[in-house]
User: What shape does this take?
Amino acid sequence: MSRLHQAVYKSPNDKDAMALVQATKKIRAVLRSEHAKQKINTDLFVSENQQLEMMQLKINIEISIKRINDAKGQKQYNTAKQMTDKILKILNNLPNKDSDLEHKQQMLESVKNELSAHLTSAQKIASENQAQDQKDDAKRKDLDRLFADKQKW
Assistant: This one.
């Protein structure tokens, strides 16, 4: 099942992804129900449940990566960084990862570094602009005082 899934898998759009997640949830519920009725042995239940959980996780990660790329495209770098941090936290806490999840984790680490670099450069530019604005305001105030109407005593 997992080999076939990996060979045919494409990144779904949001609507398809939600349908896939809902389907895996329903399959897991049926699996739990059958296990509770003792129609499936425990070893089979554990392995199948783990495969379904991994499938659901991969779908959610794919959708999150798509949203990160959309946020980057819209120059919402803080949002993209927050989503990246959240996914990396999930992946770091995952005990057994396959090569696909390892690859995604490495890719997300590089995206995080790219976003961090972009945000620090943007903050530096913003602080420089703010300092320049303050200097310009001070010059304007000096000129306003110099050329202001003279008050009589």
Summary: The first helix runs from residue 2 to 8. The chain has five helices and no strands. The mean pLDDT is 83.
